[in-house]
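Lab notes, practical 5.
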Amino acid sequence: MSQETSSSLKTTPLTQIHKELGGKLVPFAGWQMPIQFQGVMQEHQCVRDGVGIFDVSHMGEIEIRGPTARDLIQKLMTNDIDSMQDNQALYTLMCLKTGGVVDDLLVHRFSEDHYFLCVNAANTEKDFEWILKNAGSCDATIRNTSQETAQFAVQGKHSEALLQKLCETSLNEIKYYHFKKAKIHNFESIVARTGYTGEDGFEIYIDAGYAETVFAAILDAGKEFDLQPIGLGARDTLRMEMGYALYGNEINEGSKPLEAGLGWVIKLGKQDFIGKAELEKQKYAGNRRKLVGIRLLDRGVLRPHYRILKNGAPIGELTSGTFSPSLNTGIGLCYVSSEYAEPGTELEVEIRKLSVPAEVVKPPFLPTRVKKN
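Output from the prediction step:
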């Protein structure tokens, strides 16, 4: 990475800590982020077997509050905001009128007139502008609070026991996809039982000025659980084993979310929202292709854009691909014609001009272990 490139990248409040911990920093979505510390395989298994901590401060946060905040969010989102209770989080999409995806994100509801959104790092400014553009005369204050907010993800079966050492609030009472305001190491934060790994865990939002202190306290408290810092490399392999979509890979402004298997967050029965008319047409027309999981039946590592073949003829390409540490084989996500989307369908993947046998899998590739109490 050149000095010029490095100086143009944004950094999180934890960059110095990452360097001290031996993190390998790389450009990602306009940020300088750790791709790994000890190695992707080891970090992946650390989260699957115990607990790991991620710096996800590059993610964006947008706060919306005011008398018509609910109406604005309902208009912007495909999911039904009216189904939410206070202190609940909801996964949803924002779509264009064409049905393409502006972003996939989490909405957190404090009250009927106060919400905050967690959005993808590369989309933060675009999302903020999109919300402002569609706010019209809405009586609500819309703030991009990303610069003043740090975010950590503590993920794995020991995450609750670890964080409880630093928190007086009973974390056991926070249900899956719910959150509470709580103090972590005596600093005010938002603690949400959410994540991107398929394991039980929490995402913590805190004032950026306290980030280093709190991160260090979590690392110290985590020694008895063999807590390790985790980079973006393992974050990607963990999410891929779950079949979670990644913006820019599986979904974008040109994709059809119904083909991506995201119909469960598109509530066509609710009041009008941006993109509803086009999404209704697409549902009526049916899916000509589908996003599926694919698993190699022979040795190999999958990468994005590798071609998917059927009897030697191309029928699609990988949107994401990796080597699964949990399954010890290559896995990926790809769009294929609906006729080839049935689990168990045998296909091939072109890897360096070789056709490697593979089969279609319905994600997730292994069971999730989130705490759905």
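Observations recorded by the TA: The mean pLDDT is 96. The longest helix spans residues 124-135.
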